[in-house]
Amino acid sequence: MKLFMATLATETNTFSPIPTGRAAFMTGREWYRHDASRQPPTIANIPLIAWRRLAETDGHTVAESICAFAQPAGTTLRHVYEELRDMIMADLRAAMPVDVVLLFMHGAMVAHGYDDCEGDTLTRVRMIVGPDAKIGLELDLLSHLTEAMRTTADAIILYKEYPHVDIGDRAPELYRICIDAAAGKVRPVMACYDTGMIGTYRPTQQPVRDFVDRMTALEGKNGILSISFGHGFPWADVEDVGSKILVVADGDADKAADLARRLGHELWDIRDAATAVLDSIDDGLDAALSSDSGPVVLADASDNAGGGAPSDNTAMLRRVLDRGITGVVLGCFWDPQAVRFCIEAGEGATFLLRVGGKCGPASGDPVDLMVTVRKIVEDHSQTGLSAGRAAYGPSVWVSSDGVDLVLTTMRQQTFAPDAFTGLGLTLHDKSIVVVKSSQHFHAAFAPIARKIHYIAGSGALSFDYASLPYTKRKRPFWPQVADPFASQA
């Protein structure tokens, strides 16, 4: 058989003030053409590496297109998406005929003129390969799961974990389903059930942990090939925003639909307990200060670069300063201008620095601090989410009256403690560690945190789902209404 594969992924926050342009995809360690599967692993190429290894072990031929992965931000520029999509189509035409197409995408990519980039890409792939080739799609669980995706692909598999520590585990599952389908061993059919909910869910906590484990235990039995819980990505004004259950069954569409509906009802029944609860800034600080010892980790979830936020919001910093709290480290702030000023001043310099508040209302007001530059690292990075290193570029550690900040040149959410310790900071002696992340920090910070609290601040990610300014979703949803299904009756 011949397998064709590519990566084209970003997560689009349509409420974010940051446009996603060409440089976001085509610079850095997540951009390759034809050879990403032979490069060191990053979040962008993990599935490609797995698919090539499996295919070559099985004696199949591999044709590889682009690997383009952009940091979450605002809507992608139309011509940028079209350029990248058309590269894939050109490479696919050159590779024809192919038996299997495997794509690694996000599921929540929006470009100007394309609310469903994944569905558009799949439709164009199908037009080239015809009805008999098998198309598989690996997606982030924070995806929209549109009808165009479901009807055009043969199999879709989402990550099950958040933090996404299982990207590499899902890739072989998708490969096997699609290869077996091409060989006539299985006939995957998919059903998707809209739960009528919009929310944020944490598989690291109950009852979501049990739900995911129960869902996983049903796979590989009674003709069920795969089950995915699509959390949805709430910060996108698109028609298909929302939480859904996707089931892939072997040849039995009714069985897939029945199971998707049953699991959707189970999730609905636990909706209050399953939907993540966040504290206010002051409640989070109070909770941290009441702890006998630190460090207590506070997740500044509303200013998460991984959800498209600028990551330069100052609300948490301002409250720490106003309340005179010390022994606090906050990061990582995206502030290339401040980093440049610190580099020019040099290590040991003390001067007045304006921090944050650079990208508009979602960033808050800038904060002016008398800081001392403690450390400068020209090529700072942190441990990546699933593999490799996540780059921050030139970065600095500055301190001001018992408060430490990490400022970076490249926008990236905080994944791991070495985002701080890589600059010489220590965390064990801090009372509070504030991380600009919604959930991906959990895997690496949980082992060192005395407690963890999630904070809803004033950044670009509002967790008041009922008040998000949607204009395109036509169906009511919980918690906007108490019972969206009754409203539809």
Structural write-up:
- The chain is an alpha/beta fold and 489 residues long.
- Helices cover 29% and strands 24% of the residues.
- The protein is built from 15 helices and 17 strands.
- Helix 2 (46-57) crosses helix 6 (167-182).
* Low-confidence spans: none
What class do helices, strands and sheet pairing give? alpha/beta
Q: What percent of the residues sit in helical stretches (DSSP H or I)?
A: 25-40%
Oligomer: single chain
Present the secondary structure layout.
Layout: E1 2-9, H1 22-26, E2 31-33, H2 46-57, E3 61-69, H3 78-95, E4 100-104, H4 117-129, E5 134-139, H5 147-152, E6 155-158, H6 167-182, E7 188-194, H7 208-217, E8 224-230, E9 244-250, H8 253-269, H9 271-274, H10 281-289, E10 296-300, H11 315-322, E11 328-334, H12 336-345, E12 350-355, E13 367-383, E14 389-400, E15 403-408, H13 418-421, E16 432-435, H14 442-445, E17 451-455, H15 484-488
Parallel strand pairs: 1-3, 1-4, 4-5, 5-6, 10-16, 10-17, 11-15, 11-16
Antiparallel strand pairs: 2-3, 7-9, 8-9, 12-13, 13-14, 14-15
